[in-house]
Amino acid sequence: MSEATTSELMALALADRLRDGEIGFIGVGSSGRAHELVTGIPIMAAKVAQHRGVDFELQIGPLIAPDLDRVPSGWFDNDIYKWDSPALVDSDVNMDGFLRGEVSVGFISGAQIDRHGNVNVSRIKGSGGWKRLGGALALPEHCAFAGRAVLLADLNPRIFVEEVDFVTGFGHRRGDLTRDQLGLPGGGPALVVTDKAVFDFEGGEMRLAGLYPGVTAEEVEAEMSFVPARAEGLGEVPAPSAEEIELLRALTLPALPY
Amino acid sequence: MELDEALALCESGMALGLGGATMRRKPMTLVRGLADTDIGDLDIWTWLGSTDVDLLVGAGKVASLNTAYVGFGAFGLAQTSRRSFVDGSVEFVDWSESSLVGAFRAGASGLPFATTRALLGTDLAEGLAVEIEVPFGDARAMATPAARPDVAMIHAQSADEFGNVRRRSPRHNDDIDHVIAASAKKVIVSVEEIDSHADIVANRDETVIPGHYVDAVVHAPQGAFPTGCDGYYHPDIDHFRLYAEASGSEEGIEGYLDRFVRGATPDRFRSMAAEEAR
Predict the structure, then answer these.
(1) What is the pTM of this model?
(2) Which residues of B touch A90 (CB under 8 A)?
(3) DSSP string computed for chain A
């Protein structure tokens, strides 16, 4: 058994933080690494959690609780809806559940993520003015209504910025404005899983909470435009067992069709 | 009904609702037909846009765009739309998914505005949502405009000649076509297949949009191409690649429109696209 890959480390770090009775929401339709971050890794983490006996279910868009032992053969809709599941709801009904608080954990990423967990997927301020990205999708809902939001991203100083150019999803604080003042019902960003380390939030600010085997805090900070606080007793996350790596590798996720 | 007759329901300056979501069930035969008319200055409303929106922007038909997303998923960003954002030729109104669902629902319910909490504290709210005084309890909330398209275009699996739209299994339900249809003043539906009325009556529990909402039905096999239609065909990878490449520049999108949209009947478009894919 070779050593765990970065994505496997990320999936296992995430799996450690999935709880009984929770429903996690992932979206579909991204490509390449983004697809791996917000779709592939959460599916792997959920599979590991279920294997450990944690009663954790996924929701993939409007497809509720798909059977992770029977993943589809492809990522086109026509493949995904063949995935065994007890429910495939309409999107308006799906959004209602989100707003009502049915989603325990939202899995998201961002073009920019700041110290307070604000996320930007809308537009970036460049030297020649604003440049557009795709659009908000359900990111504001993940940030506002999920029991907690999990951010998945590779460390990069252009992504981890002191302050995002545009707030698509509200984190914990923006200037003097807080979640409490806004009355946002969800928990907001609670966890950031990256390629080198894991962060949590303390007092509404991102905090370095665990390092992958062999990574130093300085290496992590070099990939960020702000210096996060460090958790007391900061250390390495446990190296994955051979059995869990094997379980992940047995979960053959379909390749993107493009 | 013929495509031309259906498009006669459209006029310049109207609000146009487009069904489907990203790479699935976009009313592309109708959109290409519209892009090849003199109609313009459109106010587009679509939940999640892709080549439908981008193509209309490229054809110079769009004044403003209300959506929660425009892009090609795995094929990247919508470059024509991005250029129109930078040069200011299209006004972008960026919604979140639930707030835009709420806007269509308000339109469908005849309400003057929708309420949302999803935009609180975000920059999306600027120019879109205003905080309102909530008369009951102490929650904070914002109001957005209702979506009330003059015309909605929907592509469906099948319908009868009266526009009773049927939802056939297997169907991926990740869209809000039934809400968009209900919110619009007029509805044009294109379909893969025409059902007999007797068949619709015998399976009425599968009718998702009743015929009295619908003003025009166009038989358009492959009418979502190059996006997919559940149970019929996948998104067309080759054509999306071709479009993504073409839309990378002004000249490219012009060339695409000349080849695939201007003067192209649905039948001719399909044969050209098939030829191109070889």
Answers:
(1) 0.96
(2) 173, 175-176, 178
(3) -PPPPHHHHHHHHHHTT--TT-EEEE-----HHHHIIIIIHHHHHHHHHHHTT---EEEETTEES--TTS--S-SSHHHHTTS--SEE--HHHHHHHHHHT--SEEEE--SEEETT--EE-SEEEETTEEEE-S--TTHHHHHHHSSEEEEE----TTTEESS-SS-SB--SEETTEEHHHHT--S--EEEEE-SSEEEEEETTEEEEEEE-TT--HHHHHTT-SS--EE-TT--BPPPPPHHHHHHHHHS-PPPP--
